[in-house]
């Protein structure tokens, strides 16, 4: 079972920045086709933030375009999410996802709180 570990969440004021990271806990030689981020705000469903394929195709939510940048280090199976110009509505738990031919894997989540 793949365990993904996220880091980088925290409390930040509106307009600030955070950088999230996610990597397999024990290291992995597998290449994940897709890695990315979802988030879940209080009382809402989990939603896509951004994903990035191993070949470089990006899928971003409209709400984060121009503010968030996803990147990955393929040899390290690590995915990053640079979040700039944060807004209170970005508050939530951010979950890392990795997909390979055998299935989808989720991290435990890292909390991001943006104060107004």
Give a verbal description of the structure.
The chain is mainly β and about 120 residues long. Helices cover about 0% and strands about 55% of the residues. It contains no helices and eleven strands. The protein has strands at about 5, 10-15, 20-25, 35-40, 45-55, 60, 70-75, 80-85, 90-100, 105, 110-115. Strands 2, 4, 5, 6, 9, 10 and 11 form a seven-stranded mixed β-sheet that branches. A hairpin with a 4-residue loop joins strand 5 (about 45-55) and strand 6. The protein is globular and about 40 Å long. The model has no long low-confidence stretch (mean pLDDT about 95).
User: Are there runs of 5+ residues with pLDDT below 50, and where?
Assistant: none
- Characterize the biggest β-sheet: 7 strands, mixed
The residue fraction in helices comes out at under 10%
- Could you state the order of secondary-structure elements as H and E? EEEEEEEEEEE
State Rg.
13 Å
DSSP E strands, number: 11
* Overall outline: globular
Structural class: mainly beta
Mean pLDDT: 93
- C-alpha termini separation: 39 Å
Strand content: over 45%
Total helices: the number is: 0
